[in-house]
Design a protein that fits this description.
Blueprint: H1 3-24, E1 29-31, H2 34-42, E2 49-51, H3 59-68, E3 73-76, H4 82-97, E4 101-103, H5 105-114, H6 124-134
Parallel strand pairs: 1-2, 1-3, 3-4
Helix pairs in contact: 1-5, 1-6
Length: about 140
Amino acid sequence: MSDSLKRRLERIIELLERLIETSNSGIPIVIEGQNDVEALRKLAIKGDIIAAKTSGKSLLDVLREVREHDTREVVLLMDFDRRGKEWTRRLAQDLEKMRIRVNLVFWNELHNLVGHDLKDIEGLPAYLETLRKRCGDQISKL
């Protein structure tokens, strides 16, 4: 077992615990699709999650849905591929124009931790499980 893998796993778990707290405080999370919603639910995130690319939603539909949540802040947690990065950029610009604070901290930190190994949010639970096995299941949080 590598200490760097163990540290990476610990950092991911800490990040997810902060995301759970943020979500529990009422700040919605915007993700891409239904599989991403299910992945976040597996990771104990129980707050509002807005799926941006389900049922043929347009960018305007997503912006309207965020506005209906009557929130001053959202967490953007799109995938790490080219399309996810483009959606993140476009949504961030448009939400800021609507005077909604865009939280990209989780996306940036997660991308730095797993971006080379993982391209989408839906793969996060399996990725964590793989890291746990490689670390000998020594980390039991989440």
